[in-house]
Amino acid sequence: MDIAFIGTRGVPASYSGFETCVEQVGRRLVAAGHGVTVFCRSGHYRTHSSEYRGMKLEYLPAIPQKHLETLSHTALSVPRIRGGTAIVCMGVGNAPVVRLLELRGHRTVFNVDGADWQREKWGRFASWYLQRCERLAAAGRSIVLADAGAVHRYYLEVYGRETEVVPYGADPPADAGTDEIEKWSLKPGAYTLFVGRLVPENGAHDYLEGVRLSGIQASAVVVGDAAYADGYKRTLRAVAPANAIFTGYQFGASYQQFSSHAGVYVLAATVGGTHPVLVEQMAAGNAILARETESNREVLGDTGRYWSTPADLAAQLRTLWAEVDERRRLGEAARRRAAERYSWDAVTKRYLELCVKSLAR
Asked: Residues near 146 by Cβ (< 8 Å), separated by ≥ 6?
C-alpha cells in the first residue's frame, strides 16, 4: 500500500508530537513493506534528502506566516499525491483541504488532535477558524482520529461524531549518557524538567513560578522553543528563577539524555489530548507532576501526581524532591504503564488498519 502523510513540517522529527508520530509510524510501515511519502516544508530543513529511514521525502514551500504556513503547505501537497494512495492528514486546521479531498472522492485518516482553538496563542479570528474546522471535520466523511478518550468524548458530545481513538507511542531513551547534559553543567537527578513549545498554553510560566516558589535546590531546565513567540519568551526569561536553564530545542541523543536523568518532570500544558512528551517521559521512567486535566489522568493514571496552580506545584515539588525513594517508585510505575499501553508498534497497526479502511469503497 502507498501511504502519504500531509499536514506536518516533515521528518526527521524536529518540532512536535505530530512529526514524531509520522516518523515512528512511517518507518514501521516501511519495514512492513509499504510505500510511505512524507511531505516536508522546504524552509524547515537546511538539507533536502530524498529519503529518510525508508520514507520518501518531498519538499514544498509554505507561506511563512503564523496562520497560513500549515494550511498553505498542506494545500500544495495534495496535487502531488498519486491516485490510490491512503492519505493521513495531521491537524484540524487542515480541515478545508480535507473537505476538498472528500469532494474529489478521497477519504482521509484525519488526526484532529485536541481542541486546538482553546490555545492562548491564537487570536479571536484564529480561534473562530479552528472551531469552524472542528465542525467541518466532524461533518466530513473522512476517518476522524482522536489521540485520547477525552477528545473522543468531546467530539461525541459537541458534534455527535464518533472518532477512532489512537494515542501516541513512546520508546525508552536509547541514549542514557551524560555528555549532553554536562554541557549545561547539569548532574543526573539534580534538575527538574519542562519540555515543550514555548507558547502560553504549554504553561512554562507556571512551571517556572512553581519551581521559584518551591525553593528546592535544583536547576529548572526548559527544553523547547517556538516561532512567532518572541514576546512570550522574553517574559519567561524575565520571570525565571536564577537557577533556570533554557536549552532551546533538543532532539535525538540530547533529548534522550535530558529525559533519562531528570529528577522530576513537570507537565504544565493546559489544553490538548494525549501529550506525546508525557508518554515519552513515562517511558523514560521519570517521576511526573502533571497538571490536573482529564486527558492527563487518562494517560498517567496513579503513576504520577497532579497540580492545578503554581502554588500547588511548588508544594508538590517540595514534598517529592525530598522523597528520593518515592520518585524512584513513581518512575518505575510510569515506565511500566507506558510499556503496557503506549507501544509504537500497536499505534502503527491501528494507523494501517485505518488506512486500509479509508480506501475501502
From this structure: 112, 152, 154, 155, 163, 164, 165, 166, 273
